[in-house]
């Protein structure tokens, strides 16, 4: 069973003109178009859940001073 709720929205005149034109272009009612847009907006918010934090670990510190180019090359080459 579908339950419809009637409500009043205050919409800027320029937005309302665009809404009417778009509803005519799509062959639907303004209510259907607004409901569809709201569903998409709310679905985006649900899908945009925050990412889990990256794991952290103790690395034991730096092996070389990165400003020391020779020591850095030696560490990279496994010397």
Would you mind describing this structure in some detail?
The protein has a domain at 11-47. 52% of the residues lie in helices and 0% in strands. The chain is mostly helical. The relative contact order is 0.06. It has helices at residues 13-26, 30-47, 69-77. The chain has three helices and no strands. The longest helix has 18 residues, at 30-47. The mean pLDDT is 87.
Shape: elongated
Question: How much is the average pLDDT?
Answer: 87
Structural class: mainly alpha
How many strands, which pairing sense, and closed or not: the largest β-sheet?
none
Helix/strand order, N-terminal first: HHH
Straight-line distance between termini? 74 Å
Radius of gyration: 29 Å
How much of the polypeptide forms β-strand, as a percent range?
under 5%
Q: Helical content, roughly?
A: 40-55%
Task: Give the beta-strand count.
Answer: 0
Low-confidence segments, given as residue ranges, are none
Number of helices in the DSSP assignment: 3
């Amino acid at each position: 069973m579908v339950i419809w709720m009637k409500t009043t929205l205050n919409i800027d005149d320029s937005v309302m003109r665009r809404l009417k034109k778009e509803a005519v272009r799509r062959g639907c009612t303004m209510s259907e178009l607004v409901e569809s847009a709201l569903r998409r907006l709310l679905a985006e918010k649900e899908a945009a859940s925050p990412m889990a934090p990256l794991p952290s670990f103790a690395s034991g510190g730096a092996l070389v001073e990165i400003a020391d180019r020779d020591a850095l090359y030696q560490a990279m080459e496994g010397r």
